[in-house]
Amino acid sequence: MSGKSELIISKIRNGVVIDHIPAGRALLVLRLLGISGREGFRVALVMNVESRKLGTKDIVKIEGRELTKDELNLIALVAPTATVNMVRDYEVTSKFKVTMPNVVEGLLKCKNPKCITNQQREPVKSRFRLVSREPLKLVCDYCGTIHELSDIERSLGLV
Amino acid sequence: MVGSLVWNRDVISVLDFSKEDFEVLFSEALSMERYAKSKLDILGDKVLALAFFEPSTRTRLSFETAMLRLGGRVIGFSGAEATSMAKGENLADTIRMLDAYANAIVIRHSLEGAAKFAAEVAESPVINAGDGSQNHPTQAMLDLYTIWREFKVIDGLSIGILGDLRYARVVNSLVQALSYYRVRLHLISPELLRPRQELVEFMNSRGIRYDWTNDPYNVISDLDVLYVVRIQKERFPDPMEYERIKGAYKVNLKLIEGGKPNLIILHPLPRIDEIDFAVDNTPQARYFKQAGFGVPLRMALLRLVLGGGS
Ligand SMILES: [Zn+2]
Asked: Which residue of B has its CA nearest to A123?
């Protein structure tokens, strides 16, 4: 992390620091992790700070919530450049670059109203397959509808 | 006949199959042709469930006939009956029930992905007989079989698909099936009914050579096959839009005069008014013959899916 952002938020004790998020995507990252802010744990969010690699970037710090690597890799969909620092007792215990999942299950809603996954009375979870990283394209495994970044933003309630 | 070959698998999309699978299916269908009006008692111990949540005549009757010709039995429901039968029951529960009764399930449903979901719920093989505007694999198999029977070959042909390229599921499945062959595709439709992004990206990803025009007269002289589909009134989100576009194209004697002498015209039926009745009596018209192949083709498919010794 750059010295400047350390001025903005203090170190966390136990949790996760997600760095190198493309500027403006921090809220999307939180949504992908299923964090609305109402859960009670501490979340710090820094947007549009200088970055050597990206020009500007966002940073998200989450304290007191355990996140699995699979959960964290989901954010690669909207923040492929993100790096994750797992922190325990103020020390970074592991650090990795997120990698895009090939399958995203149960998280996003298919935009096709006639898709079987949009039937509330059926025991079916949504499932998407990654078909392109750049530009981002996910295909609904059931109805074949293509979803781009704007569709994912809409599905996460951010547009 | 192919002896002991058994697929024992779902038939959800043509993309689940290979070109070699099609060849097996076609040769099996060819050998079934002579039983299509008689009987081949190989599925006497099998029950086929027909779950037609959406009305259908042709597809349902051809599956039913095929199963009966193979000595098997058929249970199921169709159209309005489906609604009353389900009584608010969800798809998953209905499929579980049929799965307990039958050796395979044929499903038609108005929702996209319904057949795939049914296949995940059922242990028996599930055959997709049409789901929403997405897939209709057995129709595409029948279409390909008809072309193969007419030309003995599919590679190298120039194929025009005219009509509702946006909502017709047969178009999706046919283009997917044709992607296994080296064909030249001419897509013909009114501007509003151009193929969806999904189909365009599919064609691009498979390197299919295709072009699009809104006027069949532009390409008729190049075609070996003209495949016509009706405008899918029931899938239009806006009825006003349908009113504006219905009757936008018509295959008539004047159009086919401009075609090659060995041009054939196919149509999955039912037809509304997109092919003039006068065309029925021309040597180019093959849509009734195509419909007739529906029974042997589905006999072959059922045999491959359900087993049954030769
Ligand atoms: Zn879908």
From this structure: B92
**One domain, residues B223 and B171:** yes
Chain A partners of B92 at a C-beta cutoff of 8 Å? 122-124
Query: What is the CA A102 to chain-centroid distance, rounded?
Result: 15
CA atoms within 13 Å, Cβ hemisphere of B202: 20
Contact pairs from chain A to chain B, CB under 8 Å: 51
Whether residue A131 sits in one domain with residue A59: no
Whether residue B169 is annotated as binding a ligand: the answer is yes
Which of B90, B111, B197 shows the shortest C-beta gap to A115?
B111
Q: Cβ contact (<8 Å) for A143 and B201? A: no
Mean pLDDT of A81-91: 93
Distance CA A71, CA B281 (A): 63
What span, in angstroms and rounded, lies between the C-alpha atoms of A149 and A78? 7
CA torsion sign for B99, B105, B111, B116 is positive
Q: What is the mean pLDDT of chain A?
A: 89
Number of structural domains in chain A: 2
| Residue A110 CA to ligand 1 centre (angstroms) | 5
| Predicted-complex ipTM score | 0.91
Which residues pair with residue B107 across a beta bridge? Answer: B51, B128
pLDDT in tens, B221-273: 999 999 999 987 777 778 888 888 877 889 999 999 999 999 999 999 999 88
Q: Which domain holds residue A121?
A: 103-156
**Mean pLDDT calculated for residue range A60-68:** 89
Closest by Cβ to B113, choosing from A116, A121, A146:
A116
B110 to chain A: which residues are within 8 Å by CB? 114
Q: Which of A125, A142, A145 to mutate to test the interface with B (most CBs of B within 10 A)?
A: A142
| Cα-based torsion angle of the residue sequence B226, B230, B235, B236 in order, rounded to the nearest 10 degrees | 100
Q: Do A144 and B112 touch (CB under 8 A)?
A: yes
| Alpha-carbon distance A143 to nearest alpha carbon in chain B (angstroms) | 5
pLDDT: which is higher, B252 or A4: B252
Predicted local distance difference test score (pLDDT) of residue B2: 43
B149/B198 same-domain check? yes
Same domain, B248 and B284: yes
B149 annotated ligand-binding residue: no
Could you tell me if residue A6 is inside a domain? no
Domain that holds residue B131: 14-135+294-306
What mean pLDDT comes out for the span A83-100? 93
**Residue A156, token pair as written in the block:** 């996460």
